[in-house]
From TrEMBL:
Taxonomic source organism: Roseivirga seohaensis subsp. aquiponti
This protein's UniProt keywords: DNA-binding, Transcription, Transcription regulation
Presence of the UniProt keyword Disulfide bond in the record: no
Annotated HTH araC/xylS-type domain residues: 173-271
One Pfam family here: AraC_binding
PROSITE patterns: HTH_ARAC_FAMILY_2
Domain of life: Bacteria
Protein name: HTH araC/xylS-type domain-containing protein
GO molecular function list: DNA-binding transcription factor activity; sequence-specific DNA binding
SMART domains for the chain: HTH_ARAC (SM00342)
Length: 273
């Protein structure tokens, strides 16, 4: 049996744009869709999750969610929310003569979740809400101008987030390059974090995101790979290799190597030579 999906319309027939405070009593909603408008939800308080189609997002304010028309979404809110809901009807987009607003809306629709700067965004929502409550859409130039400012601010957030992601990928690549360039390897995450001008915690987070491994795991893989290379292709003793790889003594290196390979360095060398 097919479940009939609820279709909601939160605007009056004459409204082409509507803004209102986010209802504080909303907790759980059933999956539903809006077939005639684009929705922007800006939350400054609250926790829980928001699901759009198959994507579930944690509510970590300040946060903005966008919902395109025909998208299915629902809420599971745990603590009292606060913020604004901005609705832009299809007729507004169709009739809008400002091409830049149309372009901004089209670009923004690609981002279902953003983490904006609340200090610069919240006043714009407050002013737009006040203007709408007092005059509705009668002051079109004012409403259009505020809408454009909000859309512009949100897209700046999107660009900043993209740049941040790019920087993280760049830091990860630099980390891998450092492992290859270091004449004296070390298994200390803090050493590489310092060279990258970041913290060990942040380096770990970057590695988790980019490689699904901790920084320690990546360093260990590299050290074991280098140890195997030195054991196979050089005449260095195990003691010399342990010092070259920044281990305090041969015993520490042997335990480390065996923990990762289940064989001692000497046994590995004899087995393959």
């Amino acid at each position: 049996m097919t479940t009939k999906l609820e279709i909601k319309d939160k605007t009056a027939p004459i409204d082409s744009i509507k803004i209102s405070p986010f209802r504080k009593n909303i907790r759980k909603t059933t999956p539903h869709k809006h077939n005639s408008y684009f929705e922007i939800i800006f939350l400054t308080q609250g926790s829980g999750t928001h699901t759009t189609d198959t994507q579930k997002f944690d509510i970590v304010p300040p946060i903005v969610f966008t919902v395109r028309k025909e998208q299915i979404h629902f809420w599971n809110i745990e603590t009292e929310p606060s913020g604004y809901v901005l609705i832009i009807k299809k007729q507004y987009i169709d009739n809008c003569l400002d091409k830049e607003i149309k372009q901004l809306l089209a670009k923004l629709s690609a981002y279902p979740c953003l983490y904006p700067n609340a200090q610069s965004l919240e006043p714009l929502f407050e002013i737009l809400n006040q203007e709408y409550q007092e005059n509705g859409y009668s002051q079109k130039p004012v409403v259009d101008g505020l809408l454009k400012a909000i859309l512009g601010k949100l897209l700046l957030s999107a660009k900043a987030e993209k740049a941040s992601e790019s920087n993280k990928a760049s830091d990860f690549q630099h980390f891998k390059e450092l492992l290859n360039q270091e004449n004296q390897l070390t298994n200390k995450v803090a050493h590489y974090a310092k060279l990258l001008h970041t913290t060990p915690q942040n380096l770990n987070a970057i590695c988790r995101k980019e490689a699904n491994q901790s920084a320690t795991e990546i360093i260990s893989e590299h050290i074991i790979s280098e140890a195997k290379r030195l054991l196979l292709y050089t005449d260095l003793t195990v003691n010399e290799i342990s010092h070259k790889l920044d281990f305090k003594d041969n015993s520490h290196f042997t335990k480390y190597f065996k923990r990762h390979t289940e064989i001692t360095p000497n046994a590995f060398r004899k087995e393959l030579l």
